[in-house]
Amino acid sequence: MDETPRLAVDRMLMRLARWLRLLGADVIADASVTGADLLRIARADNRILVTRDKRLRTASDVFFVETNSIRSQLRDAVRRFDLDPRAIVLTRCSRCNTVLTTIARELVSRRVPPYVFASHERFAECGGCGRLYWHETHPARMHAMLDSIAF
Ligand SMILES: [Zn+2]
User: Fold this and answer.
1) How far is the CA of 39 from the centre of ligand 1 (A)?
2) What is the 59 CA–ligand 1 centroid distance (Å)?
3) If you measure from the C-alpha of residue 137 to the centroid of ligand 1, how many angstroms do you get, rounded to a whole number?
4) Mean pLDDT across 86-106
5) What percent of the chain lies above the pLDDT cut of 70?
6) Distance of CA 137 to CAs 34, 124, 147, Å?
7) Are strands 26-28 and 100-103 parallel, antiparallel or unpaired?
């Protein structure tokens, strides 16, 4: 992946938005903006709109999602945007899209479970919502999901 995909995702696809962030995409998603308004915002910000809105199906700068299945959505988007489904990168907050910053280990000792603190050296923090990340935030569940998809 040479360039980080810049996407705007509509409110029917919030789950897909979180997955795409975990795979490194820059994804804005605002549940209060829809349809042509969201397309305008996406274009002004040089983003491709990812949508289930049939009215926008044939517009340029739009990736129309054909299915309600999260697995199929993720498979189609990974192909379209040339993401690596085996690389959970944790560069962006999966909830709010803020770029994560490294945080000193001693500062998180009271904020994560003791076994997590004991078994991880590196932590990252979201400056937007305050969520903490470490490299195996949701490893088993997430890899099982990705492994279940034939990319
Ligand atoms: Zn966040």
Assistant:
1) 23
2) 31
3) 14
4) 90
5) 95
6) 31, 11, 17
7) unpaired
